Amino acid sequence: MSGPGAPDDERAARVFLGRVIEPGDEVAGRWVRETGAPGAVRQLLRGADEDVPAGVSERRWAGMRARAGAADPARDLALAAAAGLRFVCPGDTEWPGTLDDLGDARPLGLWVRGSPHLRMWALRSVAVVGARACTEYGAHMATALAAGLAERGWVVVSGGAYGVDGAAHRGALGAGGATVAVLACGVDRPYPRGHTGLINRIAEQGLVVGELPPGEHPTPSRFVLRNRVIAALTRGTVVVEAAHRSGSLVTARAARRLGRHTMGVPGPATSALSAGVHELLRGEAVLVTDAAEVVELVGDMGELAPERRGPVLPRDLLDAAARRVLAALPGRRAAPADEVARGAQTTEDDAVARLYELRALGYVERLGDGWKLTRQALLSVRPGPRQP
User: Fold this and answer.
1) CA-to-CA distance for 90 and 108, rounded, in angstroms?
2) Of the candidates 138, 230, 146, 140, which has an alpha carbon nearest to the alpha carbon of residue 181?
3) How far apart, in whole angstroms, are the C-alpha atoms of residue 278 and residue 268?
4) Is 296 helix (H, G, I), strand (E, B) or coil?
5) How far apart are CA 373 and CA 273, in angstroms?
6) Which residues pair with 86 in a beta bridge?
7) CB under 8 A, 24+ apart: contacts of 314-319
8) What is the distance of C-alpha 344 from the center of its chain?
9) 258-307 per-position pLDDT tens digit
10) What is the distance between the terminal CA atoms of the chain, rounded to a whole angstrom?
11) Element at 140 (helix H, strand E)
12) What is the DSSP string of 39-77?
């Protein structure tokens, strides 16, 4: 199975090493970078004492050689082709260059299920991650954020897990948009099993990717290391609900180290599930509440969120001079024009002109020689405590 860009021997060597090296192993990554993937495979197969890479103990080297004895890249590529998978690696036109920011922790390659072009999708993508045992609020916010991002042409990336991840994927799919699930296992083995239907739907409408070979199972460490791929693929990471020890905080911290935007959706101050998000927000993360605010950060110049303000009140339609006169009227009694003028810091003639204007609008009424606020003004213009 050859693809444009990477030579067949390079591709086969990286598939081989995927059976030997665990994701995120920087020591092994440096070794592969220095010797080249085919050279690393040759060293493993020779197994001579002088071939042990720097930083690798003899015991570990023995374990790597044992794994190498069971590796069969031709078989893996044949299984992948039969399952509709492809292997994308550095040198391919589909390889996302953003993953190179991981340095020696960069994946050897990614197994991809789905037809869209991975690199093109990664260029305009945002990660939405959070608690597995999320609240109804967390699920709602993740769904709304993902749907809003999808409607704006952004790809939503998450980990396919229960809770916030699943809500984000469903939000993007429900909006008819694009989403990518990054798994901590072989992409031919959907995990968690309860999300088999969801992950299959993602593969039909979007992409399912992972760095582990076909048939590989997830482990706790693989979940943690998978998060660096989510962070590196995307322009920014949004965390929706996360306790202090949440794995989604690993994604956010990785994003920050990589120079990506890090964002958080606030929750109740009393919620333990939002404590980790709030800690992020006290640091360098940016508070966001909807898709428009996310796009303002990660998007191109000029993609600004709308200005937020409260509802327009009748007094907002008055000019500044009329508002000053209105504010100068006492709340419970009539006042003569000269008193109103002093309160509004204007002349008596100007105050009288404004008072007649306000009377025409229904805000004040004439009472003998004075002026008094109407009931309409008291209800809609002065929401605070009434003046004596």
Assistant:
1) 8
2) 230
3) 10
4) helix
5) 49
6) 112
7) 314/380, 314/381, 315/380, 315/381, 318/358, 318/361
8) 50
9) 999 999 999 999 999 999 999 999 998 999 999 999 999 998 755 555 66
10) 85
11) helix 136-151
12) HHHHHHHH--GGGPPTT--HHHHHHHHHHHHH--HHHHH
Which of 214, 243, 267 lies closest to 75 in space, CA to CA? 214
Q: Are 285 and 262 in contact (CB under 8 A)?
A: yes
pTM, to two decimals = 0.80
Amino acid residing at 227: N
Q: Which residues of 97-124 are buried (b: 16+ CB within 10 A; e: fewer)?
A: ebbebbeebbbbbbbbbbeeebbebbeb
C-alpha count within 13 angstroms, C-beta hemisphere, residue 138: 28
Buried b (16+ CB within 10 A) or exposed e, 240-274: bbbbeebbbbbbbbbbbebebbbbbbbbeeebebb
Kindly state the DSSP code that residue 19 receives in the 8-state scheme.
Answer: T
Which residue matches tokens 């493993």?
44
What are the pLDDT digits (tens) for 146-182?
999 999 999 999 999 999 999 999 999 999 999 999 9
d(CA 169, CA 83): 22
Q: Evaluate whether 231 touches 255 at the Cβ level (below 8 Å).
A: yes
Please give the C-alpha separations between residue 321 and each of 154, 223, 264, 352, in angstroms, as whole numbers: 46, 62, 42, 12
